[in-house]
Amino acid sequence: MDKLQAMRIFMEVVERGGFARAAGHLGIAPAVVTRNVASLEKRLGTPLLVRTTRRLTLTERGEIYLKRVKTILAEVADAESSVGSAAAMVVGTLRIAVTAVYGLYVLPALLSRFKEQYPQVQFDILLTDDPVDFIASGCDVYLALAENVTGVDVVVRKFGSAETILCATPSYLARSPRLDGIDDLRSHQRITVKRSRLWNDTWQLAGPNGELIDFSMEPAISCNTTAMVYQCVLNGLGIGRLPALLAKDVIETGNMRQVLGAYRCADADLVITYPGRFYLTSKARVFIDFILANAPV
C-alpha cells in the first residue's frame, strides 16, 4: 500500500463526505477508495470512520489521525513545490465555480494568461450565481459576489469591487417617458436580479448630495442572474443595473447608455473563496495567487 496515497484518499473521503464523491474527485474507481481506507484501518488497528447508509462520520481516533494527515500532506506538497520547475508541478483539473457575468465576460481572458504559465492545468467551470457547496459540487475555488458566499469553514479573499450603473438602450429611451430623476423610474420598465440583499429588486442608490435611497417597485422582468439582465437591457426591454465592467464597451459603441448618472449604485465586493478545511492543491494555490494579482477589478 502506498501510504501517502492512502492518506490522500482517506482525507478526500472525509472532506467530500463519501467514498463515491472522493472517487469521482480523484478520478479513480470507488473500489480503490474503499480498499485503501480499509487497508489504513487494518494497518492502524482501529476504525477511522463510522459508516451508515445516510452519513459518514469520523471516530475519535479518526479525527486525531486526520489532523496529522493534513499536516503531513501539506509538508509533502511544500517539499515538492520547492524542487524543480514550479509550473511542472502544477497539473490536473481545476474545478472553478464563478458568478455568471464574470465567468462569461472576464474569466476567459484570465484563463488564457494562466494557461500560458501552467499549460498542464485543465479547467472544469461551473457558472452559478448561487452559493456553492464545495463538498457537493467538488469545486476547488469560487469567484463570486461576497454576499453569495456562505459557510463558516471557508476562506474568503477580496480581489476587487464591481461598480454598477443603471443602463438602457437608446431605442428604449426614445419610446419611453422622460427620465430626469429617481421618481421618473416609476414610469419605466425595470429589469432586476431578484436574489439577495444587494443584487435584488430594491436598488440601493446614493443621490447627488450623498443621500441614501432605496428604490423599489414591481419589476417588469426579474431574473436570477445578471447575465440575463444584461441581455434584456441590450434588447431594449427596459432599464437595468449592470456591472460597469460589462456595460462600458457597449456604451462606447452607442448601443447602450448610462442613465441617472448622478445617482451612484451600491458596489459589490468580488471575492475568491475556497474551503479552508480542505487540503489546498498546488494548482488551486497558484490559481488563487494569480487571480489576486491579475484580476482586472
Automatic annotation (TrEMBL):
Q: Which Pfam families match?
A: HTH_1 (PF00126), LysR_substrate (PF03466)
The superkingdom of the source organism is Bacteria
Q: Does the keyword DNA-binding apply?
A: yes
Indicate the secretion signal residues.
none
> What are the HTH lysR-type domain coordinates in residue numbering?
1-59
Name of this chain's protein: LysR family transcriptional regulator
Family note: Belongs to the LysR transcriptional regulatory family.
Recorded hits in InterPro entries, A to Z, give: LysR-type_TF_proteobact-type, LysR_HTH_N, LysR_subst-bd, WH-like_DNA-bd_sf, WH_DNA-bd_sf
SUPFAM superfamilies listed in its UniProt record: Periplasmic binding protein-like II (SSF53850), Winged helix' DNA-binding domain (SSF46785)
Organism from which the protein derives: Noviherbaspirillum galbum
Any one Gene Ontology molecular-function term assigned to this protein's record: DNA-binding transcription factor activity
